[in-house]
Amino acid sequence: MGTAVGYALRKLSVYVSAVAMILFTIVHITLLKFLSFVSPGLMRKIHLKMGEKSTMTQNPKFRYEDWGPTFFSLRFIKAVLSVNWCSLGLEAFEGHAAPDTALFTLDGQKTSIHRFLKGNRPLVLSFGSCT
């Protein structure tokens, strides 16, 4: 399999997995919302199990009542879907150009990584603390 065909197949798999993740999210939220009407106790158990995986239940001051109901808010659903939509197809492959990832400046302006490229000069991204 040629490198161009291999790259195209990998890129296609990124899109398919992103769309699958968006569909999974929609189905997951819909089923949990339905379950909240049918059996609120069971839905709470499922939520708490999910919270254990993400360590949300380890903080005694952060009760289920603080985070549980937000799973069904329009704001939460929009946030999850917009993150998945914005990152649709953004995957780095060795030997190919890096994706132009959206980011925000310190003053809240939306920009992109490619805006900071200058000629052939390498761009170094640091995801750590300078302190």
UniProtKB/TrEMBL annotation:
The keyword Iron does not apply. It comes from the Eukaryota. Coiled coil: none annotated. It catalyses: 3-iodo-L-thyronine + iodide + A + H(+) = 3,3'-diiodo-L-thyronine + AH2; 3,3'-diiodo-L-thyronine sulfate + iodide + A + H(+) = 3,3',5'-triiodo-L-thyronine sulfate + AH2; 3,3'-diiodo-L-thyronine sulfate + iodide + A + H(+) = 3,3',5-triiodo-L-thyronine sulfate + AH2; 3,3',5'-triiodo-L-thyronine sulfate + iodide + A + H(+) = L-thyroxine sulfate + AH2. Pfam families: T4_deiodinase. InterPro entries: Iodothyronine_deiodinase (IPR000643). GO terms for molecular function: thyroxine 5'-deiodinase activity. Keywords: Membrane, Oxidoreductase, Selenocysteine, Thyroid hormones biosynthesis, Transmembrane, Transmembrane helix. The chain crosses the membrane at residues 12-35. One of its GO terms (biological process) is thyroid hormone catabolic process. Belongs to the iodothyronine deiodinase family. Responsible for the deiodination of T4 (3,5,3',5'-tetraiodothyronine). This is Iodothyronine deiodinase. It comes from Sinocyclocheilus grahami.
